[in-house]
Amino acid sequence: MLVQFYKYQGTGNDFVIIDNRTNFFPKEDTKLIERLCDRRFGIGADGLMLLENDPETDFKMVYYNSDGNQSTMCGNGGRCLVAFAKQLKVIGDTTSFNAVDGLHHASVDKDGIVSLQMIDVDGIKINPNYSFLNTGSPHHVQLVDDLEHYNVKENGAAIRYGELYGKAGSNINFVKKIDDATFALRTYERGVEDETLACGTGATAAAIAMNATGQTDLTAINMNVEGGKLSVSFEKEGDKYVNVFLNGPAKFVFEGTIEI
Ligand SMILES: N[C@H](CCC[C@H](N)C(=O)O)C(=O)O
């Protein structure tokens, strides 16, 4: 079967997107999804998303990591899917959609910046050398001095597969403070099993963790990632973080067809 696909990227976190509103796609075929994400034998991407119909909202988001397994929420993927839905004229400049972690609202501004509301965050675990929180996906966050030269893949894999996070694992974020309003971030992503150029739920987790651990008192924070610039804003309600938004570009790269 010949399938139309669309390639999007959000600050270098890249995705294959397929319009699956007719429910034709073989969602259980892990090997197929892994091949479509393979950068030599397939299209190449950090993840694959299906746009599907949803009875309550504009659409449903289904997300798979490049290992072919369905996974938890993808922030950059969610932003790219909103841009795709706008391209398809499924939505205008604002939308509500359902994803694995529930209902999301989003908007697209005149410059194509997509602002995605993330889930509320509470129950942050703060340890002396790292924090752990869930922003739709699980994230370990730790400060690193020489982030530029840090071996993210080796050190990230060691923590992700170590005793801290058991079978489920976690995404691993390494952060460096630039100033009170800006942090640099590099992320080892679970399910990609490598560093990605950006991680949206990771940027969200890092920004909240920097506030929760007193690195900054600000609630609107710039996150400089390898693939560009994201920003995160939120409000504190006691120990909870609400009205959490992940903002940044989400760009169409190319479209094509592929035999599956
Ligand atoms: N790899 C993540 C999901 C994608 C997260 C990332 N691409 C984002 O933008 O949030 C996980 O399995 O927890």
TrEMBL record:
Catalyzes the stereoinversion of LL-2,6-diaminopimelate (L,L-DAP) to meso-diaminopimelate (meso-DAP), a precursor of L-lysine and an essential component of the bacterial peptidoglycan. Keywords: Amino-acid biosynthesis, Cytoplasm, Isomerase, Lysine biosynthesis. It comes from the Bacteria. One of its GO terms (molecular function) is diaminopimelate epimerase activity. Pathway: Amino-acid biosynthesis; L-lysine biosynthesis via DAP pathway; DL-2,6-diaminopimelate from LL-2,6-diaminopimelate: step 1/1. Substrate binds at residues 13, 65, 75-76, 171, 189-190, 200-201. The active site is at residues 74, 199. Its EC number is 5.1.1.7. It is found in: Cytoplasm. GO terms for biological process: lysine biosynthetic process via diaminopimelate. The record marks 139, 189 as: Could be important to modulate the pK values of the two catalytic cysteine residues. InterPro entries: DAP_epimerase_AS (IPR018510), DAP_epimerase_DapF (IPR001653). Homodimer. Its main location: cytoplasm. Pfam families: DAP_epimerase (PF01678). It catalyses: (2S,6S)-2,6-diaminopimelate = meso-2,6-diaminopimelate. This is Diaminopimelate epimerase. The keyword tRNA-binding does not apply. GO terms for cellular component: cytosol. Belongs to the diaminopimelate epimerase family.
